[in-house]
């Protein structure tokens, strides 16, 4: 129970800790577009070894990397659902407005290539009046460092876009408590980070 409590604190209450990232996530998006409407976004998160070991140790009873329906419900309840208070780290810029998820659907958890994976869908059903939109996945407290997966970061279903790119959003700086030496891929953080943003344009 103590380990589970600490785990919940780590994922669900990022604002209680400051300074550098404590968790590293790679993300992939599957975007469903029909005509000029954005229907849904499926999000996949790949976690670092430490968080993988914690979730498997606390919730996967036989440690086989396969979560039963009951184990999946427990992971969602105790190590995911509170992210509703942080908009599931998902920010959609569309038609001059920032949209955040109202709910998520089809939460799944599994292990792939020794990495813990969360996968869930966000229904939007929004008209793309300006034929462009942007999605950023980031933690405003910078407890979690989230980057797009280097391999196949984005997939589209339905209407194909005219083009897309992933850029740093220099208009949304995340400030935190000073430089650190421990970070992803040996990169040192300077006290300010900028979230990655997917920019999509339609024909």
Quick gist of this model?
With 203 residues, this protein is α+β, with helices and mostly antiparallel strands. It has helices spanning 2-12, 49-59, 69-79, and strands at residues 23-34, 37-47, 90-94, 97-99, 105-112, 115-127, 132-137, 144-148, 154-158, 163-168, 174-175, 192-193, 196-201.
Q: What is the makeup of the main sheet?
A: 6 strands, mixed
Helix content: 10-25%
Strand content: 35-45%
Tell me the span between the first and last alpha carbons: 53 Å
- The overall pLDDT average reads 85
SS field, number of helical segments: 3
Give the radius of gyration.
17 Å
What's the total number of strands?
13
List low-pLDDT spans: 1-6, 12-17
In N-to-C order, the SSE pattern is HEEHHEEEEEEEEEEE
Q: Which geometry do the CA atoms define?
A: globular
Q: Structural class, please?
A: alpha+beta
Descriptive report:
This protein has 203 residues and is of the alpha+beta class. It is built from 3 helices and 13 strands. The protein has helices spanning 2-12, 49-59, 69-79, and strands spanning 23-34, 37-47, 90-94, 97-99, 105-112, 115-127, 132-137, 144-148, 154-158, 163-168, 174-175, 192-193, 196-201. The strands form 3 sheets. Strands 1, 2, 5, 6, 8 and 9 form a 6-stranded mixed beta sheet that branches. Strands 4-3-7-13-10 form a 5-stranded antiparallel beta sheet, with no helix packed on it. Strand 1 (23-34) and strand 2 (37-47) form a beta hairpin. The chain is globular. The protein starts with a helix and ends with a strand. The model is unreliable at 1-6 and 12-17 (pLDDT under 50).
